[in-house]
Design brief:
Elements: H1 3-17, E1 25-26, E2 38-48, E3 55-69, H2 73-76, H3 78-89, E4 100-114, E5 117-131
Parallel strand pairs: 1-2
Antiparallel strand pairs: 2-3, 3-5, 4-5
């Protein structure tokens, strides 16, 4: 597996271990989500710096999508979203080692295009240092 895949798998694993969304964590979603809340982990981008002395630094942006439904869609995902943020930021190396660092700055966006279903997306910035 690549360092990127290691990070994505580690995020999914810590969310499952913490029982976020009742353990309904998907790394690659291939079907409709029936039971909510649910979480999907996916890459957004990977920016690579110039190689220096046998190493390469990456800034991986990871989207963690929280799907929830409720009478008030704009706050339906709040509890699960808070659990995602707390769990990921509480594991700054994701259990992988010091070559990984989750940055505390993050970005959240919401989508309500499915009426009573909310999708809240939190973007995490994660530094990865790899050998050449």
């Amino acid at each position: 597996m690549s360092a990127r895949e290691d990070v994505l798998a580690a995020i999914a694993a810590i969310l499952v271990t913490a029982s976020v969304a009742g353990g309904r964590i998907y790394r690659t979603r291939q079907e409709s989500i029936v039971t909510m809340p649910a979480v999907n982990v996916e890459p957004v981008s990977d920016q690579v710096d110039q190689p220096v002395i046998g190493r390469m630094d990456h800034m991986l942006r990871v989207a963690v999508n929280v799907f929830a439904s409720g009478d008030t869609p704009d706050n339906a995902a709040d509890a699960t979203l808070d659990a995602v943020i707390t769990t990921v930021l509480g594991n700054p190396t994701l259990g992988i080692g010091n070559s990984i660092q989750v940055h505390s700055a993050h970005e959240i966006s919401w989508d309500f295009s499915d009426f009573d279903i909310a999708r809240a997306t939190v973007i995490f910035n994660i530094s990865i240092r790899t050998a050449l």
